[in-house]
Amino acid sequence: MLVIPDADRWNHNIHYHRLIERALPQGCASALDVGCGEGVLARQLRRQVPEVVGIDLDEPSIMLARQQSSSCGIRFVVGDVFTYPFDPASFGAVTSVATLHHLDARAGLERMADLLKPGGTLVVVGLARSRLPRDLHRELCATMVHRIHRIRRGYWEHSAPTVWPPPMTYGEMRALAMTSLSGCVFRRHALWRYSITWTKPDT
Ligand SMILES: C[S@@+](CC[C@H](N)C(=O)[O-])C[C@H]1O[C@@H](n2cnc3c(N)ncnc32)[C@H](O)[C@@H]1O
To answer: Which domains does the chain have, with CATH numbers?
Structure first.
């Protein structure tokens, strides 16, 4: 199997991994990546976090993740994030990229928040639907930014299952995030992604 090194892979999800890494709490001891696919983000998190778990429903993706990850302190499990028997409040960080639109989004945010330790950070990078023609300028801008990056970096297609189109618009996702995760920061990004960053209150 020809394996492309993680550092040589680029796509719209990987583009936002740095945002996630920057949001990790200081001294974070454990992280869970929900919908980890082939494990690119989990491997990146492992550089800063001693114990990382990646979970995905898709067995072939988890097999690939395991084949590509030699580091100790990283575990990949096949399972459904809603039913896998994780202990509540057991992770210092929970991350999820391009996965929330596969789930009931409200239930997904609640489940990820439950799995976080008090003081821990949740970072979701997700997909939502644009509203046309109102968002046309954003679509044109995204297409230009995409082309520039693609020329420089190429484009790596992940093999994990996809869902298209995303069921919720950016506005709906923002409203849901604000009501589900009090005090969260919602940002809409250039390359067809939004992010939600939230720190679980200590009390
Ligand atoms: C579009 S892929 C994203 C993969 C990876 N995060 C990335 O950025 O390349 C979404 C992943 O979410 C996984 N997934 C969907 N529902 C899930 C669930 N309930 N529990 C765990 N994983 C789930 C799918 O199997 C799929 O691999």
So the answer is: 6-129+165-199 (3.40.50.150)
